[in-house]
Amino acid sequence: MIDRLVSGRRQPTTTELGPGDDAAVVRCADGRTAVSTDMLVEGRHFRLDWSTPHDVGRKAIAQNAADIEAMGARPTAFVVAFGAPAHTPAADAAELADGMWAEAGRLGAGVVGGDLVQADSWVVSVTVLGDLAGRAPVLRSGARPGATLAVSGDLGRSAAGFRLLWDRMAGFDELRRRHLVPEPPYGQGAVAADTGAQAMTDVSDGLIADLGHLAVASQVGIDVFTEGLVSDHLALVAAAAAVGEDPWSWVLGGGEDHALVAVFPAAVPDGWRVIGRVVDGPARVLVDGASWGGAPGWQSYDSGAPLR
Amino acid sequence: MIDRLVSGRRQPTTTELGPGDDAAVVRCADGRTAVSTDMLVEGRHFRLDWSTPHDVGRKAIAQNAADIEAMGARPTAFVVAFGAPAHTPAADAAELADGMWAEAGRLGAGVVGGDLVQADSWVVSVTVLGDLAGRAPVLRSGARPGATLAVSGDLGRSAAGFRLLWDRMAGFDELRRRHLVPEPPYGQGAVAADTGAQAMTDVSDGLIADLGHLAVASQVGIDVFTEGLVSDHLALVAAAAAVGEDPWSWVLGGGEDHALVAVFPAAVPDGWRVIGRVVDGPARVLVDGASWGGAPGWQSYDSGAPLR
């Protein structure tokens, strides 16, 4: 089975030794590697009645890659541990691996190793390595008052797609896709770092929630301007009307889009939109100068509703 | 909760950035990092009625570390994804982390990041990074006829301990401990590499099974001499008699001790025992020149017996 998952894959030049031995060997040219890990659990982070195994593979790679992007680095290699019931069709595992390779390929990265074990339900645990190429990592703690807040990538799509799937609402295919497979703005993390970003994170929990982490780490206030988010709002108005939701709750509180938010001292690079400003503390996030009354973020499928 | 797991830990100098941001940053001084991942599933790789959370943490670190040792590298950093039910006591998670730090500390390595998610039962997924310090990785594929097979560490203890636990047999505490927490021969992987080892792997599935992987990768035969394994046999005779087992089945077929087996072109370094010889192909493993009739290895708690 493992042979089937690893054979015929094309490793990037950073992979000095791929799968098949006790460990892989990955180049880290500047003498450091960024590393992050995320675990996805069936019924909590994905549903197999909504997602194909290929979707699950892409999502697992994408959300790990976004953590590396958010440091100003470029993902180079992934290792994957996959737990599944004994009766899982081999074709499903192969499709999961294909999805991982498809997404890793978009990054020029490789899947260099893994583990395959029995579990009661699907568990996909991914670790990503990243290359900072000599850059200092862009932390959450560097934001200073007066700087500009900007975003790269879209907001609110994943939350909208989740609600449409949950309500079994037809149409809005693109939004449903974006819940199943997020589309982080690959490459923009390094762009932000090279433009002097003071602080950065990816939007995994929700814009307000993740900016809250950044505000606390930097001990600053952050004021979000909704006028910078009009394009996100507009993209969601129709779907929001269809399900009776306020689109701002998705834009400001929806997670898992894995957009990047960063703080720039001056000009914002191409591919980024200004959405706010860093202000003096206390550490808090305001929206148009006032407190935001909606949910700040999202925590997987934790509503208590039965899944499968 | 995550704060409680990461606060107050002392990172090694190789950890340039520890937990708390989107990713960690780890030094890899020679421009490469070895990487490996292993997932442990409750009821399959450990039982919470046998193991304390501290034991589970130590085991998860130890078995990942052994994969890095088996390349001739030294473990530097671990990332950990932990899935557990919502009702899991915070103290259990803290104890798991303490066990991981205790074992990582024996290696001079750090736990640099992680993820904490809800799951139906405990799932512990660990990824380890390792430093080759300029050495070529020692693969499974380099064994040549005429070379000497040697082992560092003990064999059969984990399998004996498992059987004693399974049979609820009193006594033999040390063997039971060795099933719950393996003791790989830390540091000996690098020693083997520095002594010119042609090939190496760790004993995770069982001596005959793992040597089989090495024999296939190297396209050689391997002849194991039981006279080199007398000390392992002797250590298990009393426990084997108590449960009515042949101690050789544990020495030759028992997994999870995470001893290292390596092939040396000439002299064997201190800390290693000669246990056989590499011969011309076909790729197969013989014991004292003949086929071994017992089980070649072990595959977790896969007997079909109900666990919990």
From TrEMBL, chains A, B:
Recorded catalytic reaction(s): these are: thiamine phosphate + ATP = thiamine diphosphate + ADP
Q: What is its EC number?
A: 2.7.4.16
Which keywords are on file for this protein?
ATP-binding, Kinase, Magnesium, Metal-binding, Nucleotide-binding, Thiamine biosynthesis, Transferase
Q: Which Pfam families match?
A: AIRS
Q: Which residues bind Mg(2+) 1?
A: T37, D38, D115
Where is substrate annotated to bind? H45, E256, W298
| Positions with a binding annotation for ATP | G114, D115, R140, S204
Q: Where does Mg(2+) 4 bind?
A: D22, S36, D67
Q: Where in the numbering of this chain does the PurM-like N-terminal domain appear?
A: 20-130
Residues noted as binding Mg(2+) 3 in the record, renumbered to the chain:
D22, D67, D202
Which enzyme class, named as a word? transferase
State where Mg(2+) 5 binds.
Answer: D205
Pathway linked to the protein: Cofactor biosynthesis; thiamine diphosphate biosynthesis; thiamine diphosphate from thiamine phosphate: step 1/1
Q: Which Gene3D superfamilies match?
A: PurM-like C-terminal domain, PurM-like, N-terminal domain
GO MF terms here are: thiamine-phosphate kinase activity
Q: Which residues bind Mg(2+) 2?
A: D38, D67
Family indicated by similarity: Belongs to the thiamine-monophosphate kinase family.
Q: What does this protein do?
A: Catalyzes the ATP-dependent phosphorylation of thiamine-monophosphate (TMP) to form thiamine-pyrophosphate (TPP), the active form of vitamin B1.
Any other comment in the entry?
Reaction mechanism of ThiL seems to utilize a direct, inline transfer of the gamma-phosphate of ATP to TMP rather than a phosphorylated enzyme intermediate.
Among HAMAP family, the record links this protein to: TMP_kinase
- What is the protein's given name? Thiamine-monophosphate kinase
Name the species this protein comes from.
[Mycobacterium] vasticus
Lineage per the UniProt record: Bacteria, Bacillati, Actinomycetota, Actinomycetes, Mycobacteriales
